[in-house]
Structure formats: C-alpha cells, structure tokens
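anyone seen this seq b4? input:
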Amino acid sequence: MVPIETIVFDSEFDFIHEICGFISKVAKESIQNSGVFRFVLTGGNTIKKIYESLVLEDIDWNDCEFFLGDERYVDKASEELNYNLAYHSFFSKISYDPKKVFKCNTDLDLENSALDYEKQISKTPIFDLVLFGLGDDGHIASLFPGRQSDMEMIGNSVAIVKNAPKKPPNRITLTLNRLNDTKHQLIFTHLNGKEQIVNSIIEETVGYPIADLNPKESLRLLYLK
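predicted toks r here
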C-alpha cells in the first residue's frame, strides 16, 4: 500500500502552483522515458483554475494522451459535462492532438456510451497520473461512499453509476481497479466543509473510496485551508 503524502496550503496561489508543477514534472518524465504522458482528468469546481494555470506549463501536449476519470451523462452541449469544462479551460488554449483525447459520447444511450468508452481505453497501458477532486461527501471520480450497489460494471475499466446522490443521477466512471492502474495519483481539495473527511483520510480511516486508492508509485493529497 502506497502511503499518502499530505500537504496543506494557506495560499491558493501556492496550492495551484504545486499541483501544476507536479503535473509538469510527471509529464516531462513520462515523455522522456516512454514518449507519451497518459493523463486522467477530473471534474469539479477547483479544476478550472488548475487548468487555466496548467496551460502555462512548458509541456508538449501533443505527446500526451488524455482520459476522463468520470463523466456526467448529460447532453453534449451541457456546461455540466466534464469534457466541456476541460475543453473551454484547457484544450482550447493548448496545441494537442484531438485523436488522443478519450471521452464519453453522450449522444449514445447510457449503456452504449459506457461500452464505447470501455472499447476506447481497453488496450491503454498503465496511466502515468490520475487527478481527483474530492466531493463534500468524500466521493472521487463518480465513486460514491456506500453506493456500490448502484454501479453496473461494463468491463474491466468502466462502470455505470445510476441514482447518484448528486445531480446528475446517471454517470460513467472508471472503475477503482482501473484508476489504481497508474503510477501516480493526486487528490486536491479545499478544506472548508471537508475537515472530517480529510482527517479520516489522514488517519487512514476506512469508509471513503479514497481509502482504497493504491497507485504504483505515489499518492498525494493536497488541500487548501
């Protein structure tokens, strides 16, 4: 089990700077070692500012493959779509290869959208870095505490989530096993309102999906007071 490295910040600037610096470090090492950086993106409120700073990093994004850790099953034009947030805050501001962005097609029905995503990524080797926001209920990706019965496995990599406790109710997520098939995991969050969750994570108390994270090399939790 990889231990969690926890870092607390008082400054939002330092918080975002550290996150982007770590992403840049892993990206450059991955590109140098294997010619590609396989990067799993996340949604949430905090990621927008991270994306806006990340575009300033000196990374050859054409050498990167991008994946969505989860997606909300909504209309493709919806602002709630994680991909749309990533596109407007990040992809639209960098040079990258659109063929290397793997995402859910919500024009399809829920089951076929998940199956299509499973097929897209089923042969993808180990990820280099997975990003996670942390929900105020402790969820990561679309893995919600105590809601395993609402998940329908599509394959080794993808699951459907129905009746999620947060809107929208239907989602597509990478499975815990697939999310753990990575070298590095980075969780980031604002502490406000999540003190109990963060303390449970630091104390290694079970009960939240984050307790089951187990990357190959590093697991970092960064939070802003």
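The chain has six helices and eleven strands. The two ends are 27 Å apart (CA to CA). kinda curious what u guys think
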